[in-house]
Structure formats: C-alpha cells, structure tokens
Amino acid sequence: xxxxxxxxxxxxxxxxxxxxxxxxxxxxxxxxxxxxxxxxxxxxxxxxxxxxxxxxxxxxxxxxxxxxxxxxxxxxxxxxxxxxxxxxxxxxxxxxxxxxxxxxxxxxxxxxxxxxxxxxxxxxxxxxxxxxxxxxxxxxxxxxxxxxxxxxxxxxxxxxxxxxxxxxxxxxxxxxxxxxxxxxxxxxxxxxxxxxxxxxxxxxxxxxxxxxxxxxxxxxxxxxxxxxxxxxxxxxxxxxxxxxxxxxxxxxxxxxxxxxxxxxxxxx
Length: 268
What we know:
Blueprint: H1 2-8, H2 21-36, H3 39-55, E1 64-68, H4 75-102, H5 117-145, E2 150-154, H6 162-191, H7 196-209, H8 216-236, H9 240-260
Parallel strand pairs: 1-2
C-alpha cells in the first residue's frame, strides 16, 4: 500500500533545490527562453489554431488537420525539408540535455544514460501499448463526440522515402518532447522548489497545449499521457523508455495511417 501511495503522492526528492536567488532567477529566464523558441511557442500557436477552428461555421468533427505534410513540390527537395524538420526536433531535445549538462546535472541523473538499454526498450514497448491502444480509442471517441478534428498523421505522397521520413520524424518528436517536457522541465521545476505533483501537472498541461490544434480530445489525451509518462519518470528516473514509447506510438500512427488511409472505413 505504501508503494502505491508513493507513486500517487511521491515525496520531493532531495538534492535538487536551488537556494541562490540569482540562480533561481536565471532558471526562470532560461525556461521562458527555451520554451519561447520550442514547445511553448508551439502551444500558443496550437491554441490560436483551435480558436480559429471554433470560429468557423463547421463543427470540429467536420474539419481536418494534417501533421506531416508535403513541404516542397519536387520529391527530393521535400525529403530534404522533412529531414530538416526532424533535425530541428533533435536539436530542441539536445538543447534541453545540453543546458542540464551545463548546469552540472549529469544526464545519467535524469535517466539518459545507456546502462539499461535492453530493459529501457522493453519498458518502452510496454508503455507504448499502455498509452497507444487506449489513445486510439479515445481519439475515435472524441471525434465521434464532435470535440476533435479529423487528424491525418501524414498526407505525404506515396514515395519511396515516405516511411523513412516518417520514422525519423517520429523519433525526432519523441526525443524533443520527452527530453524537454519531462527530463528538462520537471528537473528545472524541482530546482525551483515545486512539488512533484505541481511539476507533473505543469508538464502534462504543457504537453497537451501543443496538441490543441487537434481539438479538445487531442489536448485531454495528451494531458493523460503526460501524467503517466511524467509520473513514471519521477519514480523510475529513466527517460529512455519514454522516448522509445513515444517513438513507437508515433511510428505506428504516421506509417500506419499512410498504409490504412482509404483502405478502412473506421478511420476519420
């Protein structure tokens, strides 16, 4: 019973709090700057997109939005631009990891070491199943209830490089989001003295915010995902399983949609 309670109401881990007022101010400034150029800005843009969708005469479920879209007319140029988009995602995650390292926080301390590669992959597969299957059901329910747009994970043409680009983009998404929103963000909030519960909710709401363009279902579903992933990290202190799980979920969504779109009638 005590272990269950620790998962639900975990104690604040020691050794993280920063007491120096100047350093705390710099951490706050750093958080604003980092998220103003990465996922925080994406959250604001996503909110504007949702407001725009709500102001239209059509219901949300009569509208659609695509995640991975063509970025150039010429096929090879499109491939290059898709890979550049993925590179930006990898750079975002690397920025979070680098700033933690510069602050004297070993990456192993946030679970980014390679000591448990096999176990991290297995746990990641389990987390992907735990989140991915119910997540698909929740998306279909949200769409049926009219609170979500029809989401097309990919509208890329049937080109030889499409699966490659989608897999790389999925891994980039996973790396950027889990490093920034979980490992980096919650660590910085710990240093500022926030409780584990408040840090968890802040991380989860941030994750949901940049999915608002999909509708209320996309927001709520990703908040739940953020609560599960964030709490797992707080208790297990392993970040790689989250990266693996997120990558698998996105790979199945991106590549699977490309293969099934038009072939089944249950996908919006």
